[in-house]
């Protein structure tokens, strides 16, 4: 057991301390506290530890609302022991530190609260009840959540950050023989629900009786069964999201980010826009409405099901084309056609291709890469194609800062940066960086 003075916060939900010259990354602590910590992992360069006793507490410390949170318990939440304002301040500090260390950018960051859409009388307590997609693990039929950095499962009968629509399914209070994982999905805008089951041998999965209507996915859907997707509504447009496809998990995040991207890029009628890692077409849809019929939006996505969803979701927009393939490969060879005399051809895959003058420039670009970020090669291609503005949506401050450094090397400057608390009680934060030519 170590007695530690806790320093600042680090990326990944840890606080930093030192013991005999070695760095110690401590969970369940807060900056300024003195704690007794149990070492959970040793490496050549640092230790990992859990604060198991608080000797001197921070004024920001609160009693965790969830009985399954704490040292050695569920690993899903990092900051249940901190007040919500303190959580946002910690996340802001992480973003500032990563920007400074990895990109040489000094910027004051404020993490904004994401409004929770009010649906009737169901309003969860602040910071809880927001996660519309929850992946549970199953061990011998019993449901739980993974412990931190472990394959071990913490059995739970309720998840407090799960959306009420997920909890109504009663997943945690039932047994799931033969399954290795159960994902509960709900749409906060339409009420659609879906359960996705995983298992090594799907024939052995036994589905319990559920208290609410759900759609079940066990391998390929059976003919005539309900389609395995949920519908989400943003800016008056309905988006189909199949299975475990990507969608913002906070009920207010998709609309907030869609509005923020449009505000950041300021698209104009007739613009050519590029939507990289476009998923099911959220940003492509809102951009297409702004640039109008004389403009063009090209979405790029590698996941086959997401591409099919995007083409379906945007099938009525003749100024949108969705291209399937790795982003780094597609944008390396992209050639845009600006409309000439209103001439346009409809492609067989459901998007619209313009033809006429060939150009090598997109007026505006939005990218929303996975946690690993875009990387040097993609950034280089974007800077060759982008004209006025770039909007970079990121859920990882470290890879965002790294990539902003690459953009800086190629003459692009960070104009604005917004951060959103789209994942309360966890260390995760959503950022939107807007870049302009230097």
Automatic annotation (TrEMBL):
SUPFAM superfamilies on file: Nucleic acid-binding proteins, S-adenosyl-L-methionine-dependent methyltransferases
**One Gene Ontology molecular-function label:** rRNA (uridine-C5-)-methyltransferase activity
Q: Could you provide one GO biological process annotation from this protein's UniProt record? A: rRNA base methylation
Cited Gene3D superfamilies: 2.40.50.1070, Nucleic acid-binding proteins, Vaccinia Virus protein VP39
Alphabetical list of PROSITE patterns matching this protein: SAM_MT_RNA_M5U, TRAM, TRMA_1, TRMA_2
Q: Where is the active site?
A: 395
Family matches, as PANTHER family: RNA M5U METHYLTRANSFERASE, TRNA (URACIL(54)-C(5))-METHYLTRANSFERASE
What this protein is called in its record is: Class I SAM-dependent RNA methyltransferase
Please name the taxonomic classification of the source. Bacteria, Bacillati, Actinomycetota, Actinomycetes, Streptosporangiales
């Amino acid at each position: 057991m170590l007695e530690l003075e806790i320093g600042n916060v680090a990326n990944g939900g840890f606080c930093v301390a030192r013991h005999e010259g070695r760095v110690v990354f401590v969970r369940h602590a807060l900056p300024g506290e003195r704690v007794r910590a149990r070492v959970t992992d040793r490496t050549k360069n640092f230790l990992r530890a859990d604060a198991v006793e608080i000797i001197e507490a921070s004024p920001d410390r609160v009693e965790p609302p969830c009985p399954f949170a704490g040292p050695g318990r569920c690993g899903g939440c990092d900051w249940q022991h901190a007040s919500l304002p303190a959580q946002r301040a910690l996340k802001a500090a992480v973003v500032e530190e990563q920007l400074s260390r990895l990109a040489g950018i000094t910027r004051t960051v404020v993490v904004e609260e994401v409004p929770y859409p009010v649906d009737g009388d169901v309003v969860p307590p602040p910071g809880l009840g927001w996660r519309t997609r929850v992946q549970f693990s199953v061990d011998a039929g019993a449901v739980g959540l993974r412990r931190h950095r472990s394959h071990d499962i913490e059995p739970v009968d309720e998840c407090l950050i799960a959306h009420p629509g997920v909890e109504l399914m009663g997943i945690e209070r039932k047994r799931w023989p033969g399954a290795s994982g159960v994902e509960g999905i709900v749409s906060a805008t339409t009420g659609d629900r879906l359960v996705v089951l995983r298992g090594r041998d799907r024939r052995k999965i036994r589905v319990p009786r559920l208290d609410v209507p759900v759609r079940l996915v066990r391998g390929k859907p059976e003919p005539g069964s309900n389609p395995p997707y949920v519908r989400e509504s943003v800016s008056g447009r309905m988006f189909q999201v199949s299975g475990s496809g990507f969608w913002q998990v906070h009920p207010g995040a998709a609309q907030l980010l869609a509005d923020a991207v449009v505000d950041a890029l300021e698209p104009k009628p007739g613009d050519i826009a590029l939507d990289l890692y476009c998923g099911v077409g959220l940003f492509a849809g809102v951009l297409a409405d702004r640039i109008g019929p004389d403009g063009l939006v090209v979405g790029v996505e590698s996941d086959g099901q997401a591409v099919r969803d995007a083409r379906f979701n945007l099938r009525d927009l003749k100024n949108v084309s969705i291209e399937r393939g790795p982003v780094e490969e597609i944008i390396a060879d992209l050639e845009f056609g600006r409309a000439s005399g209103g001439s346009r051809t409809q492609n067989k895959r459901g998007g619209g291709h313009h033809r006429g003058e060939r150009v090598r420039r997109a007026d505006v670009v939005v990218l929303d890469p996975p946690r690993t970020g875009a990387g040097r090669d993609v950034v280089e291609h974007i800077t060759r194609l982008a004209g006025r503005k770039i909007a970079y949506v990121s859920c990882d401050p470290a890879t965002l800062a790294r990539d902003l450094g690459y953009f800086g090397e190629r003459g692009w400057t960070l104009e604005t940066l917004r951060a959103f608390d789209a994942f309360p009680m966890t260390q995760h934060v959503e950022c939107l960086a807007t870049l302009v030519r230097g």
